[in-house]
Amino acid sequence: MHTHTEDGHHHHNHGNDKVINNAFIIGIILNATYVLVQFFTGILTHSMAMLADAGHNLSDVASLALSLLAFKLAKKKRNNSFTYGYKKTTILAALVNAIVLLITIGIFGYESVNRLIHPQPINGGTVAYVAAVGIVINLLSALLFFKDKEHDINTKGAYLHLLIDALVSLGVVIAGIIISYTNYYWIDGAISIAILIVILIGTWQLLTNSLKMSLDAVPSHLVFEKIEKIITDFNGVENLHHLHIWAISTTENALTAHVRLNEALNFEEKIKLIQEIKHELLHNNINHATIELESIELPCKDEHC
């Protein structure tokens, strides 16, 4: 939930921040405990699918911890060195998370292919029981992030991750049941490869989104042309150029632009119009807008004008 003040900035509701903060902490504790259970079960039952899932869940714990750290840093006050504060750490956390996941996929992928070619006997029943617990834990953890998932890429990332985890655990349950009845041990390797493909798809999106954000691309949920049209549709805006839109954090966006307004407007009217434009941009998820006024008397010398 957002409130906004006359200076045209969004302020987070602190109750909301506390909820997100607690969601991350509970999620980390629940999943870290479950990873230990999975790891020991995987070792004891020789199940690669269980170990792949444990590795996957461990990377989720790491990503939740990274997101929590970024969330804390983003709340730190700005200073003379970091004039936007530490908001960009949220983007870096998403990027690091994606890279760590890709490395995990590579390691487990190699081992899973090995298991597919050289199957090993495993205890399917135990694997199915432990994975069933995983479904419950992942769904409970995902519910913690459900309400705030649209406000932030890291919160949404956590929510989607945990939902995928629940599906992955379901896959492991099915594999465990089939193995316990048929002794088709190769299914263990096949399921772990399927798990890794599912993770790869989600990770790739996280990687590209966070990489674009760290390179100051227009955030994926904003459309450049739409923002341009919002500004030029205002009565009194004659010309717009040097429009730049980028992400300050996973939740906040900034914009700079040069505009030329109708010369018939007096100074107060021009300032009022700029304030109206900023207010409209605020409703389109642009929290920090800097708009520079230009006039015909002082033409812009740049070739983009």
Largest sheet report: 3 strands, mixed
Enumerate how many helices there are, as a single number.
Answer: 8
Q: What is the H-and-E element order?
A: EEHHHHHHHEEHE
Unreliable sequence segments: 1-12
Tell me what portion of residues adopts beta-strand conformation.
5-15%
Strand order of the largest sheet: 3-4-5
Assembly classification: single chain
The geometry reads as elongated
Please, what is the average pLDDT? 84
Structure report:
The chain folds into two domains: 2-214, Alpha-lytic protease prodomain-like (Up-down Bundle); 224-294, Cation efflux protein, cytoplasmic domain (Alpha-Beta Plaits, 2-Layer Sandwich). A three-stranded mixed beta sheet has the order 3-4-5, covered by helices on one side. The chain has a two-stranded antiparallel ribbon with strand order 1-2. A hairpin with a 5-residue loop joins strand 3 (237-247) and strand 4. It has helices spanning 14-45, 48-75, 89-117, 124-146, 153-182, 186-214, 224-232, 267-282, and strands at 2-4, 10-12, 237-247, 253-261, 288-294. Helix 1 packs antiparallel against helix 2 (48-75) and helix 1 runs antiparallel to helix 4 (124-146). It is built from eight helices and five strands; from the N terminus they run ββαααααααββαβ. The protein is elongated. The two termini are 39 Å apart. The protein is mostly helical. Residues 1-12 have low confidence and may be disordered.
